[in-house]
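Reopening: structure tokens for the manganese (II) ion complex, inputs below.
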Amino acid sequence: MRLEEWMEFSEEVLAAKEKGLPIVAIESVVLSFGLPKPDNLRVHRAIENEIRKRGVVPATIAIIDGKLKIGLSETELERLAESKGVEKASKRDLAWMIVKKRTGALTVAATMVAAHLARIKIMVTGGIGGVARKAEENFDISTDLTELSRTPVAVVSSGVKSIMDLRKTVEFLETMGVPVIGYKTDRFPAFYFKTTDYPVVKFDSAEEVASLLKFKFKARIPGGVLVVNPVSKGLEDVMPQEKAEKLIEKAIIEAEMKGVKGGAVTPFVLSRLVEMTDREVLKVNERLLLENAVLAANIASAYYL
Ligand code: PSU
Ligand code: MN
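Re-run output (same inputs, fresh job):
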């Protein structure tokens, strides 16, 4: 089986490769399952445009009818946003979904693998997966974390999605040897919130981050880099942090009581939070995604200079 038989570049991404333009990969689970309709498609288009505005080419990655697509057409984006017949694909799912000609939205871990195959060095997301609360019982640890220790791709994020156990996630990132780089911050951000007590190494510009990536990839120190970018205006700016955290707890407990499991948990919790906070959560989520897109584009520009 030749590579072209199962991997396909969009014309925009192919042209960027030929011209040597910087490219930023975008994960697609947020589009299919992370944000409510119809905001998901609008926000996704805005992410792509923030990247284009900076002379960088966005490459949203997904499996469409068994093809690994690097860069998606408008119709393909609409199909993923509709999410009918779309499955959440992490690293373990890539091979079987290609062989069985399925359609899948890619997690951070799967996007890292695909980006690496496509020779793309930088990707963007909202929040990565992490070590779940009660992981000592349920063993739920996201492949995003193990992949960050293996595949040389930089992931620009606002930290870990809020329903995870942040302390355990930070420990696990350390165990796996993943460098965590704070963009203009020396504290790990907490997705909807700007900061925590967990220290990270502070980098002050996109150029400085790009120079770290150049060194790490050239020196072949295995694995990727997690870049964490605190949102400029967090939930704490619209309601007391204690109240916001109580609502998050409440939504997670509701999910448990309703027997919501696995991949369905994040969409359930997020949609409950959107209701409970009168859409404030959604505004913060949108803001951090766009801000991460800008940072990823700036890092990619500096990397390819
Ligand atoms: N952050 C969110 N919503 C999401 C995700 C992250 O706020 O839906 C997705 C990302 O695609 C991430 C994935 O890679 O969840 C992690 O899934 P898991 O824990 O099953 O590895
Ligand atoms: Mn998980």
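The pocket of pseudouridine-5'-monophosphate (ligand 1) is lined by residues 27, 29-30, 33-34, 90, 107-108, 125-129, 142-144, 161, 263, 266 (CB under 6 Å). The first helix runs from residue 3 to 6. Marking as resolved unless the reporter disagrees.
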